[in-house]
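Schema walk-through. Below, the input block comes first and the output block second. Nothing else is stored per chain. Lengths vary across the set, and this one has 67 residues.
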Amino acid sequence: MPTCDIRCEKCKEWFASPIQFGSEQAFFTSTLIGNVVRCPRCRDISGCNKENMRFRADNEGFVGDRT
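--- output ---
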């Protein structure tokens, strides 16, 4: 099953993204603008954007610029 994680911009902890994608193509073709999420570890707000997200699935994957 594919998963999408976010890396907190403050504490750098990985956690499950509230935005999930069913496939690599859905992840790559999506536009993520203005979405934010609260880190469950440090409680700081981080952006939900491809630069700090990773998409993982069997034989597929993506790691953003800041990951």
